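[job 4471] stage=fold_predict status=RUNNING
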Amino acid sequence: MTRVTVTFVGDGQVDDAAPPHGTAIVRPLRHVRAVRERHALRFADPAEAATSRSARAWAWALGENTTAPVTDRQTAVPPRRSDIEAEIAAADERRLRGDRENRAEAAATILRWLIGDDDHVPVRGENRGELVGGFGDIVRSPQEIADILALATQRQPRVPATDRDADADPDDPQMVRQDADYLDGVVATLAWVLGERPESPITRIHPHELTTRDLKAERVHAEDIIEQARHPWMADRLPRPWCGEGVKFTITWLLGDSTAPPVDPVGRGPYGQDTDLPAMLRDACARQRRS
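[job 4471] inference complete, writing structure tokens
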């Protein structure tokens, strides 16, 4: 069997932490290289790769050729972001009408990842997160996780103080309490993933080694809490539903099902005043259902 070799346009680029120079790609060059090399392993020989729309998606986005992978039209080199978005839209249209024979969706999946519209690493196999600085199937680096944990932790002490603000809107205390519960779920989940907490946030299990299956199982339990806690007779037996939301959306972010972190840039959850998170979390729910 002949292994397909990959030649990179960015081979002369010194800073591999930056995106490939001159392209619409937002991923660091080293991540693009690692994921593309993993993707190339699926092809037995160069002839197979040459006819693959997904392989052509890499080459086109990097400016190695002028032919778009979905529509076969000729574009600028490298393509603009609008060109890439047009290819993704064309693939979506074909998928909606049931046309799956030409593998356009596989090409679109790679293009979405390259421009930052989707954080799912577009390759098969185990430990995909390691290709992008994460671990296992977690696509966030330990530093990214620690930074979000620090934001959420710093925000937690402020929540009760806000609740005592005499000038606050009458509805604010409830929202503040909900945001505090949500942040509890975020902090517990991130600390668990980083090994700073021995037990999982909902089920209280102590896995010997954290796996993707553990994370997804914990997310299912969080969803159960969100649903069941709506019933009055269950309210005293379960964690608050907002804590479950914090757990759910943190795991959703860790696995790349959402591009939005579980807190905003100053550490607020979706119930914090002036936060943009509610819309982001609705989008995360939609992405998770599609995945």
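[job 4471] summary: Residues 9-124 form one domain.
[job 4471] exit 0
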